[in-house]
Amino acid sequence: MNNNKLKVIAMIPARYAATRFPGKLMKDLNGTTVITRTYQAAVSTKLFQEVYVVTDDEIIFNEITNHGGKAIISKKEHECGSDRIAEAVEDMDVDIVVNVQGDEPFIEKESLEDLLAVFEGEDAHQIDLASLKTSLETEEEVENPNHVKVITDKNDFALYFSRSPIPYVRNKEAEITYYKHIGIYAFRKNALLDFYRLPMLALENAEKLEQLRYLEYGKNIKMVETKLKTIGIDTPEDLEKARLTLDNLKK
């Protein structure tokens, strides 16, 4: 994608003390830490004018800068990645900010190009932020609360996100595809800063899904379908799966 009109940067929020798997971003992934591999993958897409890791910890800051990357230390404590990114970009001259998850080192250029392309589409003026979704294939995946589900309107704008299976299928003859939300976002800078300044409301607090804050305040989230099947590293088992995936890619 040739994005001459918009200045697009990538931000990778990186918290060291992850609740479920502390220190996961500094774990070895076949000779390179998870966070460095993610940073390098974002840079290698060549879609961004700049790529930064924004972190709360000097260990991660030093890991990135020692490998020639760009990193920013957060000034405040933050509950979510969007807040961490918003603080970092507040005084930057940018149009679109892409949030790349630090624990997803297998980001892929084609999906990111599709995500950014919506900001040049016919309904671009309606879009506050965009994100990715992919179909879920098994009942186990649909029922798993760690797979966040999303439903959209006919124009692919998000109606709701939930850890529960949505929609509930009362009519068993209805043909329904369940979609998993992939937590890669492209924000207009203004929408991101609005999020940062607005308090959490009830739905976000209940589901613990920050994207619900945007919907609760009337922001428009454009969803882009992808075939990308990410490996998010939330557990030691996920790390092993990622290592095997890299081994297989080399064969």
TrEMBL record:
Q: What is its main location?
A: cytoplasm
Pathway it acts in? Nucleotide-sugar biosynthesis; CMP-3-deoxy-D-manno-octulosonate biosynthesis; CMP-3-deoxy-D-manno-octulosonate from 3-deoxy-D-manno-octulosonate and CTP: step 1/1
Q: Spell out the reaction equation it catalyses.
A: 3-deoxy-alpha-D-manno-oct-2-ulosonate + CTP = CMP-3-deoxy-beta-D-manno-octulosonate + diphosphate
Q: Does the keyword Transferase apply?
A: yes
One biological-process term from Gene Ontology?
A: lipopolysaccharide biosynthetic process
Gene Ontology molecular function: 3-deoxy-manno-octulosonate cytidylyltransferase activity
Localization (cell): Cytoplasm
| InterPro entries associated with the record | Cytidylyl_trans (IPR003329), KdsB (IPR004528), Nucleotide-diphossugar_trans (IPR029044)
SUPFAM superfamilies per record:
Nucleotide-diphospho-sugar transferases
Q: Name one Pfam family in it.
A: CTP_transf_3
- Alphabetic keyword roster: Cytoplasm, Lipopolysaccharide biosynthesis, Nucleotidyltransferase, Transferase
Identify the EC number(s).
2.7.7.38
Superkingdom of this protein's organism? Bacteria
GO cellular component, alphabetical, reads: cytosol
Family the entry assigns:
Belongs to the KdsB family.
| Function text | Activates KDO (a required 8-carbon sugar) for incorporation into bacterial lipopolysaccharide in Gram-negative bacteria.
Q: Which protein is depicted?
A: 3-deoxy-manno-octulosonate cytidylyltransferase
